[in-house]
Amino acid sequence: LDYQHVQVPFEITLWIMLASLAKIGFHLYNKLPSVVPESCLLIFVGLIMGGIIYGLNDKSPPVMDSDIFFLYLLPPIVLDAGYFMPSRPFFENIGTILLYAVVGTIWNVFGIGFSLYGICQVKAFHLQDVSLLHNLLFGSLIAAVDPVAVLAVFEEIHVNEKLHILVFGESLLNDAVTVVLYKLFRSFCEMPTIKSVDVFAGVGKFFVVGLGGVLVGLTFGMTAAFTTRFTKDIRVIEPLFVFLYSYLSYLTAEMFHLSGIVAIIACAMGMKRYVEANISLKSHTTVKYFMKMWSSVSDTLIFIFLGVSTIGENHEWNWPYICFTVIFCLIWRALGVLVLTFFVNRFHVNTITSKDQFIIAYGGLRGAICFSLVFLLPDFHRKKLFIAATTVVILFTVFVQGMTIRPLVDLLAVKRKRESAPTVGEQIHIRFLDHLLAGIEDISGHWGQYYWKDKLEYFNSKYLQKILLREYDQPKSSIVLLYEKLERKHAIELAEAGQLGHAPSHPSLLCSGFLCSNNDRTVITDKKLEDTLNPDVLENIQEILARNLYRIRRTGPAYNRHTLPGETEPVEHAKEILILRHKSL
Amino acid sequence: LDYQHVQVPFEITLWIMLASLAKIGFHLYNKLPSVVPESCLLIFVGLIMGGIIYGLNDKSPPVMDSDIFFLYLLPPIVLDAGYFMPSRPFFENIGTILLYAVVGTIWNVFGIGFSLYGICQVKAFHLQDVSLLHNLLFGSLIAAVDPVAVLAVFEEIHVNEKLHILVFGESLLNDAVTVVLYKLFRSFCEMPTIKSVDVFAGVGKFFVVGLGGVLVGLTFGMTAAFTTRFTKDIRVIEPLFVFLYSYLSYLTAEMFHLSGIVAIIACAMGMKRYVEANISLKSHTTVKYFMKMWSSVSDTLIFIFLGVSTIGENHEWNWPYICFTVIFCLIWRALGVLVLTFFVNRFHVNTITSKDQFIIAYGGLRGAICFSLVFLLPDFHRKKLFIAATTVVILFTVFVQGMTIRPLVDLLAVKRKRESAPTVGEQIHIRFLDHLLAGIEDISGHWGQYYWKDKLEYFNSKYLQKILLREYDQPKSSIVLLYEKLERKHAIELAEAGQLGHAPSHPSLLCSGFLCSNNDRTVITDKKLEDTLNPDVLENIQEILARNLYRIRRTGPAYNRHTLPGETEPVEHAKEILILRHKSL
């Protein structure tokens, strides 16, 4: 037996296997995950495993290595979050999100730090040796809402898109603030005296860290998009570039002490649309699938490790400090949300309701980032107290808040996410209104979001697409995609009704897709269609659709080591059938 | 700047990126890869990079770590090879493959070892200090044909399936022999005296290593298949299990000093058919795609590292020893193939032609396995000579043989791989003949391959499928799959001819798929079909097809963190359209 030789990969594989099997286990009992969030179950599994390890070895089980967390476990989750980020609600609410993320986090850090310092002054609690700086340092790591925990809970409760993006966006973007404040206070702790210059340098650093992250991310994202222009002949390694470039953006940002989370999100959001257009459908399925898989495994491992690391002798228990930490975390977050939302609502027509505010405040979960940061603290005599307090806050937010938030959302009847995709009618109207608003903003000289969006779109189609896309003259708009989907759906409906044989040749779909909404579609015959639309316009529409939809089937060699064996893609074929049917009319 | 912190993942990512970009680079110039095999180009890139590193640092560039090679780079390639192994030709030729792999490799080891020992006795060459055991040890590592190198070259030249599987199968299965002989001679080198007991133990060990590997692999493969029975609710982590279990089988085999390559191949071949049936179509696309991607990256890295590691001061040059090694490798392989094929041909009707024999002998490429093994040798004063000889043999086989084999295949007009998939007619006939031959073997009391295949198939459908498949009563035979494909093809043809509107409702495809071959299909109308086939039979066929093809569309929740967002699978939809059309008749 030669265990030493294979130990590292063997143990990593076994941990991942355990995590995956635990996940399968929960889903076999359908009732459990519908009551308790998966994150709680996973922490629970971790606690049990930690208990077993502790019981057997009689020493503390290994704690999650902060390096492993930040270098290997966190990036997949953030990449997944960035890649699947719904960009429209995100950019529509970017101001509010930034306000919560930056001002809100700073508010929480100082609020928690100062009030805990106040508690430390009470002689009965025996905490007078904890300085203000240490309290602020602790505040800086405990204040930040954790994206992993938020994602794990919010994706299961299906609140409306705006609410989701507000909490989730905040949890992602506050990383820049956390990085800056944490490093600032940590270096202050080691400095003999603090000059006011240092404080100003800290404020300046915040912009560098945040904007630097965005810049690094966008650079790598554009490079990734550019690279996928040339992968036509080796489809098989296409997905690789998506992962490699985003990971490099994260590592590069970390290397320069910028915000890695912000970088990887900028990279993913920047490259998504170009990469999607350049790579093959199967490659894209692989990218999406693998991203989901990877982030799912990462987050499972994080919660299990969180559980395992909780067990042991790393803790120093001090009732008042720990209890007040939990209370201050709740109070300052609630106050922060109330105050900030008051200002936000003054400048917006579409206000944040008080129910939404409650869920935003209540959804401020803490997680593995705090946990990793507290272990990265320099050694000082109260570190174990901080570890204990952090652990309690995490467990409290994940278990108590995480488990009660779903019933609360039900109880308050918070507006849920709409289940159906927007209809063509809606899409056309939204787009139309965007153009209209951009025009109004242009005329009135107001540089609002629509103005910038319009400018960006112009820049994109004028320069970026030409450089980054392989076939830049064939952009696939969401309407064309929707048209394809409707076409398919309609064919199924006809087939189900047994009408395909009898009335297959009227292009009712073309008009129904364009003119009517999905739900109350009325079948318009050939005759009526021609009456409704100007023939020129109709021809134009058909030409656009045909050009966008048709793809020549590639006839490659039968076997090639760079491609998967056999058959051209069935989806392509299926598309073609439907498209050609229209062509043949 | 904090490079230390991110060094390990950053450098790994950069290496992979370099490798992938090099690959893209070659494919941009279409002419280059069609003349020079990719493996040569990659080694060349490696040589240049090694030269640059050597020039800049003035010390030898790092050599490929044997541990990294065996633990991380080799498994993906072997997994890919095993998973996509065409099982029918493999099992049909398993006897011949094993003969080449076992007897052939032993022949080569002893042939090369003894004749090099003979060379060492010539005083003029100054090699008298190389003992017989050391020569045999060297023979054991240099004799084995390398799967990575073989795959890289043979997949580009498209020889016929039998020839391909003979060379490729040999290169995979000889691992067991190599492991045993290499470890045997290495331990003999360290023993003071060798008893005859040790030699017999070595022979016995061979069976343990080979069969043990198969057993470990099958165990993990079946467990993997069983696990995927329960992943219905979390499709996203399905692909993970395929990778985890196969990697575990490899590591476990290595841990017990069994053949990891044999284990991972047994695992992949064993689980493939069950996993494929259990997991979703998208998961399977991801599995296939990622396997190809991973193996492609691995093999790119291997060849680049091979190039880099060649540069440096690890070599001791001795013209006679190195030249004779190359010559003996060629001669003994050619002799071995000739002698073994002579015996094989006596027992087979379908003989191996002399052209095929030449290609088998000429295709005996050496690669990174030899290279890693020679670095794993215990230190002794002639190790550098062995390293030099191994490097030269690898470069000679990869460059000279690898580059000339394609023109030779053209020149000799070796039978190529057939480009088209077998027609339904052929498939039915092959299956029919299998049953017939199994029956004949049963009656004549001969336990041949068909008898065993039949028994295995019975055991599979009687027990294994019930345990391992989620829906074991719905096996998807290749005929049904072909039917789907033809159905789609036919619909496209109709659409292209503009006939879909006019004559969409005759089920001509059903009969054309079943009765006629793909090429000379004649359209048979409803009437004719009913005349040709007994109505009962027809109904039965339709019923089978309908049950196998139809799938109820799942309507899941709109968003779930374990699934990909949106839309049910378009392939499923497209299928349904076509199937329902038939149903509605």
UniProtKB/TrEMBL annotation, chains A, B:
Boundaries of every Sodium/hydrogen exchanger regulatory region domain copy: 530-585
Gene for this chain: Slc9a2_1
InterPro entries, sorted: Cation/H_exchanger_CPA1, Cation/H_exchanger_TM, NaH_exchanger, NHE-1-like, NHE_CaM-bd
Keyword Transmembrane helix set for record: yes
Gene Ontology biological process terms, A to Z: regulation of intracellular pH; sodium ion import across plasma membrane
Primary location class: membrane
UniProt-recorded name of the protein: Sodium/hydrogen exchanger
UniProt xrefs under NCBIfam families: b_cpa1
GO-annotated molecular function: potassium:proton antiporter activity; sodium:proton antiporter activity
Topological type in the membrane: Multi-pass membrane protein
GO CC field: basolateral plasma membrane
Family the UniProt entry places it in: Belongs to the monovalent cation:proton antiporter 1 (CPA1) transporter (TC 2.A.36) family.
One Pfam family from the record: NEXCaM_BD
Domain Cation/H+ exchanger transmembrane as annotated: residue spans: 17-409
The organism of origin for this protein: Burhinus bistriatus
Transmembrane segments: 12-29, 35-56, 68-85, 97-120, 132-153, 165-185, 206-227, 247-268, 289-307, 319-347, 359-380, 386-409
Alphabetical UniProt keywords: Antiport, Cell membrane, Glycoprotein, Ion transport, Membrane, Phosphoprotein, Sodium, Sodium transport, Transmembrane, Transmembrane helix, Transport
Locations listed in the record: Basolateral cell membrane
